[in-house]
Write a structure and sequence with these properties.
3 strands; 133 residues; binds zinc ion; 10% strand; mainly alpha; elongated
Length: 133
């Protein structure tokens, strides 16, 4: 009974917010480009901050860094950096996430539920086979 109610609520949210989601996601991509972390030393390149030491001006995307750019801390090449997603997004943004991207947050949970639900069912089935045997 509760599950059904949840599904209906979710369906309503999905219908109500696609446009808003699209807008929020676009804004997210524009305002919070991915940061990259140095696998060697843990230094994080934040596009919003740039890199003073290498004269990279704030707002420079990692993808736009010169090929010769190296980690300002340990001097490894760009290839040693990994994309860690948006970091240090403006604080107002976290609040927007709660409103505009609520459905997006539910989706991974739903996937987990499906996965674990399937696993659980499989496990019960497995057990029942033993019980019958
Ligand atoms: Zn480094």
């Amino acid at each position: 009974m509760n599950e059904k109610a949840n599904e209906e609520t979710l369906a309503e949210q999905l219908e109500a917010s696609p446009e808003k989601n699209a807008a929020s996601e676009k804004t997210l991509a524009e305002q919070a480009p991915s940061s990259f972390e140095c696998r060697s030393c843990g230094y994080v390149y934040e596009p919003a901050k740039g890199d003073n030491q290498n004269k990279i001006s704030p707002g420079t995307l990692f993808e736009d860094l010169p090929e010769t750019w190296r980690c300002p801390v340990c001097s490894v090449p760009r290839s040693q950096f990994i994309d860690i997603g948006a970091v240090g997004a403006p604080s107002g943004f976290a609040e927007n996430l709660d409103y505009g991207l609520g459905v997006n947050r539910l989706t991974p949970n739903q996937k987990n539920l499906l996965i674990f639900g399937a696993l659980g069912l499989g496990f019960l089935f497995f057990l029942s086979l033993y019980g019958l045997g």
